[in-house]
Amino acid sequence: MAFGETFARSVHLLLRGTLLLGLWLVLSQQSLADRLSDTYNGRKVLADFMVGLAKHVTWPDEAFAGSRSDFVVCVLGPDPFEGSLAAKFGGRRVGPREIVVRVMEQVPDGGFTGCHQLFIAAGLRAEVKEILQRLDNLKVLSVSDMEGFASAGGMVGVVGSGNRVSMQINRTALLASGLTVSPALLRLGR
Predict the structure, then answer these.
(1) Collapsing DSSP states into helix, strand and coil, what is residue 145?
(2) Cβ of 28: how many Cβ atoms within 10 Å?
(3) Which CATH number fits domain 33-188: 1.10.10, 1.10.760, 3.40.50, 3.40.630?
(4) How do residues 55-88 score in pLDDT, each as one tens digit?
(5) Mind listing the pLDDT tens digit for each residue in 155-171?
(6) Are 121 and 77 in contact (CB under 8 A)?
(7) From which domain of life does this come (predicted)?
(8) Which of 39, 76, 135, 165 has its CA 20 to 30 A from that of 47?
């Protein structure tokens, strides 16, 4: 083998190794993420999921202050969507109601009156039981990507990584809420 061929082969192997190492770093970082909201792509998927979820649930009229009231999606805790949820919902409607996104750093003094869909950030794990108790008797769909959310009493737990999403549905909590859930949504959840 001539010097030029050996050098070219060495450069090729070095580049190939560098690309493989880079790919491994990206994939291993993705697999280390505990929640969808931990990665940029995961946040995009989760925002899309939240939009789709609103289409499969019907809220009774008494969940709204009036016939022209907005449909309010609340995010409790540090906004894992980094504003992307408001962009996804921008200009959309649930039935005749315009969708508004409201981010709350902490539980508001007045509770969750006015919220219809509530995403609870995973950073509030220690407070989740108390938060869910405050939702009792309210027509609010509770959603989170924290591990074990549905088994802790939440309605929809979203699990996954990358572009894959699955749901853990707490049928008891959903049925007790007075919300009407499409059979398709119930079939999709585990």
Answers:
(1) coil
(2) 9
(3) 3.40.50
(4) 899 999 999 999 889 999 999 998 888 888 888 8
(5) 999 887 555 677 899 99
(6) yes
(7) Bacteria
(8) 135
Give the contacts of 121 (CB within 8 A, at least 6 positions apart). Answer: 37, 75, 76, 77, 78, 79, 80, 144, 146
Tokens standing for residue 135: 């939702």
State how far the Cα of 37 lies from the Cα of 47, in Å rounded to an integer. Answer: 9
- Please, are residues 116 and 72 in contact by the beta-carbon 8 Å criterion? yes
CA distance 141 to 179: 8
The pTM score is: 0.77
Tell me the C-alpha distance between 100 and 181, whole Å: 21
Q: Which two tokens stand for residue 48?
A: 């899309």
* Calpha distance 48→60 (Å, rounded): 24
Give the span between the Cα atoms of 32 and 47, in whole angstroms: 21
DSSP state of 163: T
Q: Residue 61 and residue 39: Cα distance in Å, rounded?
A: 36
